């Protein structure tokens, strides 16, 4: 029957639920599974996975308390009794006991013979660059998500955009103190991103790399160390780039790097580089800004020049447990950005005129994935729009 024949009150045809979902919706089926060996095991694992989702916000807040009260830091100095953790933190011993057991439940610490100590996971938490800074930055996002219904309806004014002042235009990021705060957070976590990018992209053969939106130069410092003959240009906002001087000087890279202050929204990108990287830049911005930026990159490259986009990417048709939850919600709270999938970025590169575009999924999706492309003068951006 056609829609017209069905009349104005007809309901849209509903797709039939798959049989497994119909079973999942049945309390009798769950009662049955709980009794059957084999099925009972699967049901318990599914239940635990569901409960992990339900309690996720409590896990995060317990971790934040362990960080802010410096419990993990104290244990990094050596095993300690409860009193040595509670006293300096200003937390009554009986409440600290509950927090420590929560930390043990998270696998971060353990108690043996009356002494609390770090586990390998707890030690790794402190050692992974950027992780602690990320957790300490999360209260902003936590407040933005306090009313998730209003948040997803678009009825709230998230605070997070204020942390990244450039999202509403380069002029927003003129305050050097704000710029230093966000640049430090990014630089802290850049080590892992650079390491994974260097695993996926071979920069040998590149003569001159320009990192656009390169912050205080942490990515270029890592690539420069791996490729001793590479010349480099750092391009970022005027309030940001002064922070790169000390890094390049300390790494002995001063003679190999040129620092160019500017805004890719308002200024032409400098020429001269045969490869341009955009690391954790696109996901901050709306499609229109990204389109304009990719065209500017195309214009700044010579024939055969390469573009390298590196950032956490959404899973597309197969949503990813990290990027489609954390990064997509985070960039939504930023108000201007969007976590795009690899194929989407590949398509946008193609529309900007790049050819031979390749998506390389990262082996840690929550750290980064890469899309690369090559400039061919036969395919101009105007032609492919
Ligand atoms: C999320 S941070 C990433 C920094 C660095 N690439 C990294 O991965 O650590 C985004 C960077 O883009 C820069 N940025 C934002 N808008 C810009 C603009 N209009 N022109 C130049 N840089 C800009 C910011 O200052 C910031 O350093």
How would you explain this protein's 3D organization?
With 385 residues, the chain is an alpha/beta fold. It folds into two domains: 56-127, Arc Repressor Mutant, subunit A; 148-384, Vaccinia Virus protein VP39 (Rossmann fold, 3-Layer(aba) Sandwich). 49% of the residues lie in helices and 13% in strands. The chain has 19 helices and nine strands. The strands form two sheets. The protein has a seven-stranded mixed β-sheet with strand order 5-4-3-6-7-9-8, sandwiched between helices. A hairpin with an 8-residue loop joins strand 8 and strand 9 (369-375). It is globular, with a radius of gyration of 25 Å. The chain starts with a helix and ends with a helix. Mean pLDDT is 92; it is low at 1-6. Residues 166, 170, 173, 183, 186-187, 190, 193, 213-215, 218-219, 236-237, 240, 263-265, 279-281, 284 line the site of S-adenosylmethionine (SAM).
Produce the secondary structure layout.
Elements: H1 3-6, H2 19-24, H3 27-35, H4 39-54, H5 56-68, H6 71-76, H7 82-89, H8 93-105, E1 109-112, E2 115-118, H9 120-127, H10 131-144, H11 148-153, H12 160-163, H13 176-200, E3 208-212, H14 218-226, E4 231-236, H15 244-250, E5 257-261, E6 275-279, H16 287-300, E7 306-311, H17 323-334, H18 342-351, E8 354-360, E9 369-375, H19 381-384
Parallel strand pairs: 3-4, 3-6, 4-5, 6-7
Antiparallel strand pairs: 1-2, 7-9, 8-9
Helix pairs in contact: 3-4, 5-8, 7-8, 13-14
The structure holds S-adenosylmethionine.
The site of S-adenosylmethionine has 23 residues, from helix 13 and helix 14.
């Amino acid at each position: 029957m056609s829609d017209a024949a069905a009349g104005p009150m007809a309901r849209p045809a509903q797709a039939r639920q798959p049989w497994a979902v119909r079973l999942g919706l049945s309390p009798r089926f769950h009662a049955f599974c709980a009794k059957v060996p084999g099925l009972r095991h699967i049901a318990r694992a599914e239940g635990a996975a569901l409960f992990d989702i339900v309690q996720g916000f409590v896990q995060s807040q317990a971790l934040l308390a362990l960080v802010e009260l410096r419990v993990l830091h104290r244990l990094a100095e050596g095993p300690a009794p409860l009193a040595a953790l509670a006293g300096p933190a200003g937390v009554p011993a009986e409440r600290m006991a509950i927090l420590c057991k929560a930390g043990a439940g998270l696998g971060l610490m353990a108690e043996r013979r009356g002494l609390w100590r770090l586990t390998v996971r707890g030690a790794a938490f402190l050692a992974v660059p950027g992780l602690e800074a990320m957790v300490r930055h999360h209260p902003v996002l936590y407040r933005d998500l306090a009313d998730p219904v209003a948040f997803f309806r678009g009825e709230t004014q998230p605070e997070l955009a204020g942390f990244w002042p450039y999202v509403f235009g380069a002029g927003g990021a003129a305050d050097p103190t704000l710029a230093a705060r966000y640049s430090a957070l990014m630089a802290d976590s850049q080590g892992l991103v650079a390491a994974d990018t260097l695993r996926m992209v071979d920069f040998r053969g590149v003569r001159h790399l320009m990192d656009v939106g390169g912050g205080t130069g942490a990515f270029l410092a890592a690539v420069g160390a791996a490729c001793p003959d590479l010349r480099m240009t750092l391009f970022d906002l005027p309030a940001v780039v002064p922070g790169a001087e000390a890094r390049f000087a300390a790494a002995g890279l001063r003679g190999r790097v040129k620092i160019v202050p500017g805004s890719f929204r308002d200024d032409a990108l400098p020429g001269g580089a045969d490869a341009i990287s955009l690391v954790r830049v696109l996901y901050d911005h709306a499609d229109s800004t990204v389109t304009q930026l990719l065209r500017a990159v195309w214009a700044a490259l010579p024939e055969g020049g390469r573009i390298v986009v590196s950032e956490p990417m959404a899973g597309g048709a197969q949503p990813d447990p990290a990027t489609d939850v954390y990064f997509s919600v985070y960039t939504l709270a930023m108000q201007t950005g969007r976590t795009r999938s690899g194929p989407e970025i590949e398509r946008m590169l193609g529309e900007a005129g790049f050819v031979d575009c390749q998506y390389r999924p990262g082996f840690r999706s929550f750290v980064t994935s890469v899309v690369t492309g090559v400039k061919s003068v036969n395919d101009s951006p105007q032609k492919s729009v």
